[in-house]
Amino acid sequence: MSAFFSLSRIALAAAVLTAAASGACAQNQAQTQAPTASVAAAKPVAVKVFIGAMFEIGKNTGDRAGEFQLWFERYWKDATPINVPGALSPVFCNADGVCGSVLGMGKVNSSASVQAIVLNPQFDFSKAYYVISGVAGTPPARGTIGDVTWGSWLVDYDLGHRWAPEEGKPGAPVFMPRKGYENYRRFQLNPTLVQWAMRLTQDTQLQDSESAQRYRLRYPQPQARRAPHVGVGTHVSGDTFFHGPGLSNEAQYIVKSYGADDYVATEMEAAAIALVLARTHGTDRILSLRGSVNFDQGNPNETTLAHLDPAPGETAGGFAETVANVTKVGSIMVDTIVRDWTTWQNGAPALKK
């Protein structure tokens, strides 16, 4: 055995003993200081409004805006991201208690993010309002490109029985609700809160585009051809992008069979997010806000497949204007709640006639 190796073993043993002693001291010191550290721990963020978008096209600022970017630029440009295990994206919060995140597209994706966020101890959601925000499709008989609608009901499109049309009576519905899903398939949002949202935003001047104006003229329905406005109605959540007059009529049939208002927006997330919130904090403070960027069917002169796969230059346009409209309308409600927090913190105040 060489002297060098022996000295190395001695040095190694000494290092181990030193490390052990240091570790013991550190442990004792940590135990001594534990109460102080606990007292000094950061308090959870008291969330007043949480804004959930479903996707962003690129970055949160500085490029083409998706559903989140304009919210981010309005409320969180200087905010530090808060990472949440289980959520798709970080959460951002400002000093006023307005927080937001990109949740992911689809019912499972978005609801998984929401559950991770609302259960995370970094946040206090006990008095929070929620704005579920994104783009949507709309039936041409009830909406147009650029519209912004507040959801009165959230209905799940997928929970039921379906069969091929040729396997039923000609012209009859091909959907039947499945028993056992009564508490999962539809949610009526707080009528007082929805009425507040409409009262505060219904006269908002919305952006429009020349391309959207030209595109609307392909449709004969008066609602499809008008300028965009703020409205209210049922939002239908489905993981399937349903298109065509047949499935649009089916969606309307479903919401009516559930006792909901007219179907005005097709989206992919809101009903699932509402279920998560129903089990954690209730649904009285949920708002669903959608901007229409497409019709859920083609015009009478095109097939459904042609509508789904348009030729270059044949799209509706108006996407940038619509996401701007969503943020413009939604921020009126957000800012009102935050500004008048002493009035809103205990729930939506009664409406005065």
How do the strands and helices of this protein lay out in sequence?
Elements: H1 3-40, E1 45-46, E2 49-53, H2 69-75, E3 92-93, E4 98-102, H3 107-118, E5 123-124, E6 129-138, E7 148-156, E8 160-162, E9 175-177, E10 186-188, H4 191-201, H5 210-216, H6 222-225, E11 230-237, H7 245-257, E12 263-267, H8 270-280, E13 286-295, H9 304-308, H10 319-339, H11 341-344
Parallel strand pairs: 1-5, 2-4, 2-6, 6-13, 7-11, 11-12
Antiparallel strand pairs: 3-4, 7-10, 7-13, 8-9
Secondary structure tally, helices: 11
CATH class: Alpha Beta
Shape: globular
Q: What share of the residues lie within helices?
A: 25-40%
Write the element-wise H/E pattern from the N-terminal end onward.
Answer: HEEHEEHEEEEEEHHHEHEHEHHH
Q: What's the assembly state of these chains?
A: single chain
Helix-and-strand structural type: alpha/beta
How many DSSP-defined strands? 13
CATH fold label: Rossmann fold
Question: Using only CA atoms, what is the Rg?
Answer: 26 Å
Structural overview:
With 353 residues, the protein is an alpha/beta fold. It has a single domain, classed as 3-Layer(aba) Sandwich (Rossmann fold), CATH 3.40.50.1580. It contains eleven helices and 13 strands. It has helices spanning 3-40, 69-75, 107-118, 191-201, 210-216, 222-225, 245-257, 270-280, 304-308, 319-339, 341-344, and strands at 45-46, 49-53, 92-93, 98-102, 123-124, 129-138, 148-156, 160-162, 175-177, 186-188, 230-237, 263-267, 286-295. Strands 2, 3, 4, 6, 7, 10, 11, 12 and 13 form a nine-stranded mixed sheet that branches. Strands 1-5 form a two-stranded parallel sheet. A two-stranded antiparallel sheet has the order 8-9. α3 packs parallel to α8 (270-280) and α4 packs across α10. The protein is globular and about 65 Å long. The model is unreliable at 1-40 (pLDDT under 50).
